[in-house]
Amino acid sequence: MVATLKSQKKPVVLWIDDNSSLRKLAQRALTRTGFDCVTASSGADAISILDHIEPDLILMDIEMPGMNGFETCAAIKAIRKQIGRPHIPILMVSGHDDLEFLDQAYGLGILDIVLKPINWKMLVYRIRYILSNSDDSEANQT
């Protein structure tokens, strides 16, 4: 399954969350709306998955055991910088909306924050918008 994702034309979204119910909901909602959704249950799992796929966008929970979302984001950005592909839209999923949290998230270069409970239809529109603008900005950088 992982090997075929690179050759498909559907945008690939990596969803990182320790909550299995939320991962299933995300996979169902995103798959039904034209995305390939790959899920990871932890930051460490996500990093190993990134050896096999090139997602177009990453969504991740903040509060996870082991590596939290902030640590996972920093690790992903460092790895991508090393391989010369630092630009990937990352959104964080959280129930937090206080200023300290927002400062920390945006300080890491997070593109946006998705607050829980998730409005799946709105999320799909946000992802499509981000990806359409991401394609334009990457084309302009070359």
Description:
- The chain is an alpha/beta fold and 142 residues long.
- The chain has one domain: 3-Layer(aba) Sandwich (Rossmann fold).
- It has helices spanning 2-5, 20-32, 43-49, 69-82, 99-107, 120-141, and strands at 12-16, 36-40, 57-61, 90-94, 112-115.
- The protein has a five-stranded parallel β-sheet with strand order 2-1-3-4-5, with helices on both faces.
- α3 runs parallel beside α4 (69-82).
The CATH topology is what? Rossmann fold
The end-to-end span amounts to 31 Å
Spatial shape: globular
Q: How many distinct helices?
A: 6
**Helix-strand sequence:** HEHEHEHEHEH
Biggest sheet strand order reads 2-1-3-4-5
Top-tier CATH class: Alpha Beta
The portion of residues forming beta strands comes to 15-25%
Residues in helix, %: 40-55%
- Rounded average pLDDT: 88
CATH architecture, please? 3-Layer(aba) Sandwich
The biggest beta sheet, please? Answer: 5 strands, parallel
When the domains are counted, the total is 1
Q: What is Rg?
A: 14 Å
CATH homology group: Response regulator
Low-confidence stretches: 1-7, 137-142
Number of strands: 5
Structural class: alpha/beta
